[in-house]
Amino acid sequence: MKSWFGKNKSAVKGGTKGSFYRRSLFIILLITSIPGLITGFSIHWFAVGQIEQDLKALHQKQIEQRVKTLDDQLTYLELSLAHWAFDPRFNSGLKESDFAFRFKDTRDLIKSLLVMRGSHPLIDDVMLYLNQPSATLFDPEYTPVSDLETERRFNSLLSRPHNIFWNSQPSDVSLVHKIPGGAKEHFGVLTVSLKQDKLLDLLQALTPYNEGTTLLLNAEHETILSAGRDDETGTFSQALLEDVSSIGAMSGGFVKQWQGHTYSVSYGTFKRLNHEWMYVSASPMSVITSPIIIASKIIVLISALVLLAALILSWLASRKIYSPVERFVHLLTGGQAGELQNHGMDEFKLFEKQWHHLNRESKSLQMQLEEELPRIKEGFLMQLIQGHLYAYSERDLRERMKGYGWIVTGRQFTLMSVQLTGFSGLGDRFSSDDEGLVSFAAANIMEELATEHLEQFNVLNFQNLSVGLFLILPQDLPVKAVTDKLSGALTGAINSILKLKVKITISRPTMYVKSIPDLFLSVTQAAGYRLFRDENQIIYMEELLPQDPEHQRPYPFALDREILQAIRMGEQETVEQLIDRFLEEISREQGKEYFVQQSVLQLFGSIHYIVLQSGLQPEQLFGGQNRFEQLLHIRELPELSRWFKEEVIRPYMRQMEERSNLQLKRVVEQTIQYLQTHYMKDISLDSCADMAGTNPYTLSKAFKQIAGLNFIDYLTRIRIDRAKELLRTTNMKINDVSGQVGYQHSYFNRIFKKYEGVTPSQYRDKWLAG
């Protein structure tokens, strides 16, 4: 027995009796290699397909969201143009205006068009065409239309059946509204042309990846704009349109193969006034799936190589039976296979560990996606509190907040503003460039403390040593109890950690989302109630004013905004009327001197800010006087009205008007200099206008306004004065003198006698005799 065991042991070592073992090894290696092959093919055929489906759904969802943004932008332009078309400036009185002589009305109309052109980043140009009393075009300068093609083009817009419509042509998109708005008979059109590059940027936002293509089609299915990459012949875009046409549905999506790439195609329509536009967006999925396909092929290749190596090694030596598995473990452990024995771990536990690792990475990616939601919510809040969402209804705002995960039903809303003070006294700890860092630290502290006290909130970091907190509280919860507790904790934390003092301003609660911008404005403007000392302060907006029935109305923010808007538009008469309404409002609803003083100081501060924004220096505009101090000493409403109009509004309007006339003054000065040096040549108003880069009408009006004479009289005066000088100082003949100053002899005699009362010969004789 012993000899038999020893004999077989030596036989195994020699390899003569290893055939069964090797056959078994071959089967085992084959079985262990099959899962790798199956895994590779499964990843290639199933996982990639599932990813493509997920990417298709994700792409379609993204496109719908981004198309809504594009639709909102265009809808805003439609509403703005409709509002402009109903403006009194564009009423039926325009067809009776004489723009050639009513210079002020013409200038005001040009200013209005310039303001419209700058009111939205998508607007490239705003033109006003009138066919009564004669064909006239403001672009924005006043120009009589003499081109029949231009007149025909605008009259064709007037003949359209709708009052407002999109004139969408390839590479030319404009919005047209007939004027006057709402009238049965129209005599003009207001045309808003869109910037192609800006619209192209919005269109490119529909393409999530750089290699995609997006098309925008008008109601006639003509391509208005296209964005993204395409081949030189445009065959890809043509193929997309053919596929969409063959499907026949108004919206949907499909997967398209093109030149070795897989594209997720989404298409749909959105209404534009009386027509429907179509968008088609194709994004390459191969950008994401190609690494997975390569990985799956690599796995298949590695599995095949492992199987081949196992077969070869099984026939070479039984000692290397573990070699393929060892190599695989080596790949997973990074050369630390010995740790398996140290931790009592077999190969399958290693595989399980790696699987859990991949699962954790997957969850981590999911968490990263969820982390983007707070940034989206913060962006929405910033737009809301700054008043950029005023066009949305209460219902729309609540629906958007629900979509972001907020619970708003049965809730009340409050804002807290935390301003850090005493920063300048910490020169040893922070430099002047560390305001953003300190604000970030304060925002983190506020977020940690708010998490302990609140269920729904959002922190807003304004980066200027101030942080905001948006609170959503149950309707029946006392706001003051919650904010008192949170304010105390926040004050103590910032005092001890950052060594700074805090001023906390807490707004009144509201049940309406649309009231939140007013709450934010009232909170930011409450700085005037703070004591000018470096100490902790908590200000409740509800406690700033008495709560008896006589004092329940807040500061008239709506009138404040209307006054500032009228100042920006340059409407002096409207501004003065609104100021009277403002003073009447604050005196009627909040008649105490304290509230009136605070309100007029707030209004003057807002106007002061507008002055700074316009580029004017308040010291120069107000003569270096302290207008705030003057305002504090006025106690009567009529005097307040006079002070605002004569000391603030009218000086500002004059300065802005002088700025607008500066360019015209330079043009007139340039023309005068040219006349004084070239008076002897054949000079006309048209030639001088061409030289100055303007039209004859504008030059003539500006010349009369600035020089005090019209163009012809000024030129004639220069020539007559030069002729008188030649008659006095030379013996030139009258014919030579007339030619020297640019006149024919017969006309020279008549014009000289008209201006001097005597003929040139009589003038010379009189001079020589005297």
Notes on the structure:
With 770 residues, the protein is an alpha+beta fold. The protein contains 27 helices and 16 strands. The strands form 3 sheets. The chain has a 6-stranded antiparallel β-sheet, with helices on both faces. Strands 8-7-11-10-9 form a 5-stranded antiparallel β-sheet, with helices on both faces. The model is unreliable at 1-22 and 546-552 (pLDDT under 50).
SSE inventory with pairings:
Layout: H1 2-14, H2 19-85, H3 103-117, E1 123-130, E2 136-138, E3 142-144, H4 148-158, E4 164-169, E5 172-179, E6 188-194, H5 196-204, E7 213-217, E8 223-228, H6 235-247, E9 252-258, E10 261-272, E11 275-284, H7 286-316, H8 323-333, H9 338-342, H10 347-385, H11 394-403, E12 411-421, H12 435-453, E13 456-461, E14 466-474, H13 479-497, E15 501-506, H14 516-524, E16 537-540, H15 541-544, H16 557-569, H17 572-589, H18 593-613, H19 618-621, H20 627-632, H21 637-678, H22 685-692, H23 696-707, H24 711-729, H25 734-740, H26 745-756, H27 760-769
Parallel strand pairs: 15-16
Antiparallel strand pairs: 1-2, 1-6, 2-3, 4-5, 5-6, 7-8, 7-11, 9-10, 10-11, 12-14, 12-15, 13-14
Structure characteristics:
alpha+beta, 6-stranded antiparallel β-sheet, 27 helices, 16 strands, extended, disordered N terminus
